[in-house]
Amino acid sequence: MIPLRDTIQSRSTPIITVSLIIANVVAFIFQLSLGQNLNDFITAYGFVPSRFFHLISKGNIIAGLFPLFTSIFLHGGWFHIIGNMWFLWIFGDNVEDRVGHFRFVFFYLLCGFSAGLIHGFTNPNSGIPTIGASGAIAGVMGAYFILYPRARIWTLVPIFFFAQFVEIPAFFFLGFWILMQFFMGTFSLGVGSMQGGVAWWAHIGGFVTGALLIFIFRKRQRNLPRQYIDQYRPW
């Protein structure tokens, strides 16, 4: 299922969401300019679980945590970054609207950090660099799941050789998405959590973190228009 847009009109300009997309695109263009040095760059600034735990055990906390930040802005290819930025664009503006611009920065980063850590704890001996914004974006999706379960997502659904445009409730679309991540993540525990090149538990960790943190970060409903509250009342 490919989401195309949601039915909620954001009440404010999503300056942080747009800024995050720009930052990711700029970082990706920089990656493309590295040529043969790209692998060394990814190894240095991607999140490597085994290196993380080694550095933490030696007391090098900053050196261990820094790749958790840098890895969020790196991507492994065109499909990787386009897919991530598309999901961020669809779900990020409304979550930013309910959280506030400044607080959304911290919310996004915390989800990304949590996603990386959970990936590390489920695969502590891995020496493979993990990169991508998908863990942080999964946190945004988790928040959207809590805030707007009754919203509709216009979705392209492939059916054999045909494609159908369907308006799907957000709770179903995002619920199906996280169930698939959990299924694949559980399967991957027996064969390595990077099976297929996807850090499934980073997605799960980010989604759950976002769903929990939104209760702390969201604005109080008394600050929202009554029509807005009635139409998109959360769980």
Describe the overall structure.
The chain has 235 residues and is mostly helical. It is built from ten helices and three strands, in the order βαααααααββααα. The chain has a three-stranded antiparallel sheet with strand order 1-2-3. A hairpin with a 2-residue loop joins strand 2 and strand 3. Helix 6 crosses helix 7. It is globular and about 50 Å long. The two termini are 24 Å apart. 40% of the residues are buried. About 3% of the residues have low confidence.
What is the count of helical runs? 10
The total of beta strands comes to 3
Cα-atom Rg, whole angstroms?
Answer: 18 Å
* Estimated helix fraction: 55-70%
Q: Helix- and strand-based class?
A: mainly alpha
The CATH class is Mainly Alpha
- Overall pLDDT score: 88
Low-confidence segments: 226-231
H/E topology pattern: EHHHHHHHEEHHH
List keywords for this structure.
235 residues; mainly alpha; 3-stranded antiparallel sheet; 10 helices; 3 strands; 62% helix
Structure summarized in a few sentences:
The protein has 235 residues and is mainly alpha-helical.
Layout of SSEs?
Blueprint (H helix, E strand, L loop, with lengths): L1 E5 L8 H18 L5 H8 L3 H9 L3 H10 L7 H22 L1 H22 L11 H14 L4 E8 L2 E8 H19 L11 H18 L8 H6 L4
Antiparallel strand pairs: 1-2, 2-3
Helix pairs in contact: 1-5, 3-4, 3-6, 5-6, 5-7, 6-7, 6-9, 7-8, 7-9, 8-9
